[in-house]
């Protein structure tokens, strides 16, 4: 059996604002858009699943069932960088010998910054 490939799709209200946030947060590039979608992907030569932003009318109302983890060697430096991009720190966790910070993107979608 061949492993499946995936794309991640995130519902957003402001397509341009969220594309600017997520391209900067992930180091991705905007590769195109059509109607209510923007396609973001790693730069050439890099790997990672594409992120598709989909503009929707309804506001976010509950916790995401799927969220993005951003891993880094310096969790606090990465959290600070994301805060400068518009993310909000929610809570810091230290469990099972590792550290991560729960954050929210500018529209309230959860993400975590995790120790690599």
Structural features, described:
By secondary structure, the chain is of the alpha/beta class. It folds into 2 domains: 1-56, 2,3-Dihydroxybiphenyl 1,2-Dioxygenase, domain 1, CATH 3.10.180; 66-116, 2,3-Dihydroxybiphenyl 1,2-Dioxygenase, domain 1 (Roll), CATH 3.10.180. It has 2 helices and 8 strands. It has helices at 15-26, 75-85, and strands at residues 8-12, 29-34, 37-41, 51-55, 68-72, 88-95, 98-104, 110-115. The strands form 2 sheets. Strands 1-4-3-2 form a 4-stranded mixed sheet, with helices on one face. A 4-stranded mixed sheet has the order 5-8-7-6, with helices on one face. Strand 7 (98-104) and strand 8 form a beta hairpin. It is globular and about 40 Å long. The N and C termini lie far apart (30 Å).
List keywords for this structure.
single chain; 116 residues; alpha/beta; 2,3-Dihydroxybiphenyl 1,2-Dioxygenase, domain 1; four-stranded mixed β-sheet
- Which strand order do you get reading across the main beta sheet? 1-4-3-2
Gross morphology is: globular
- Secondary-structure element order, N to C: EHEEEEHEEE
Q: What is the quaternary state of this protein?
A: single chain
What count of domains describes the coordinates?
A: 2
What does the radius of gyration come to? Answer: 15 Å
How would a textbook summarize the main sheet?
Answer: 4 strands, mixed
In DSSP terms, counting alpha (H) and pi (I) runs of 4 or more, how many helices?
2
Mean pLDDT: 95
Beta percentage is 35-45%
């Amino acid at each position: 059996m061949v492993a499946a490939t995936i794309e991640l799709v995130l519902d957003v209200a402001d397509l341009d604002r969220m594309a600017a946030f997520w391209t900067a947060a992930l180091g991705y590039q905007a590769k195109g858009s059509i109607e209510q979608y923007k396609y973001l992907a790693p730069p050439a030569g890099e790997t990672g699943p594409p992120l598709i932003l989909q503009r929707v009318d309804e506001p976010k109302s509950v916790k995401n069932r799927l969220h993005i983890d951003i891993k880094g060697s310096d969790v606090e430096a990465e959290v600070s960088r994301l805060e400068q991009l518009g993310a909000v720190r929610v809570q810091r966790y230290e469990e099972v010998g590792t550290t991560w910070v729960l954050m929210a993107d500018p529209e309230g979608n959860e993400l975590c910054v995790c120790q690599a």
